[in-house]
User: What shape does this take?
Amino acid sequence: MPHCTKCGTVVTDNVGFCPSCGAPQAAGVAPAMAAAASTQSGLSENVAGLLCYLLLWVTGLIFFLADKRPFVRFHAAQSIVVFGGLMVIRIILMMLFVSSGLAGFSMGLGLLWLVSVVGFVLWILLMIKAYQGEKFRIPVAADLADQIFGKS
Assistant: This one.
């Protein structure tokens, strides 16, 4: 399904102008060529979705600002919330347990290890699901991303 080259709104095939923003579209072009022309980054949606997770929240932020396609924006927003949240959790755990003595320090290392493993598993899972073209939603994070960044 083609999207507007300016605002990312879904447009019908062979439409002359975007119904949302009025930007001229590639009317009369074959649908495959129109879809290729509508990508802002030159990447297919599934590859752009995968790249949203590649460098955790950093690439999520880059793609959220650069790509207007709803699929890519969803994955970018979810990447920012999931991996930004995990980073905040790690920082809080380090601050809490570093100064709490040997027993607290070892428990803190265990919790940091657990958060790291969960983050690694989520990183791999989300990249695979995005590449497969799925809008795989992490229950709390996806809802929070929708609230913060708007529905994608």
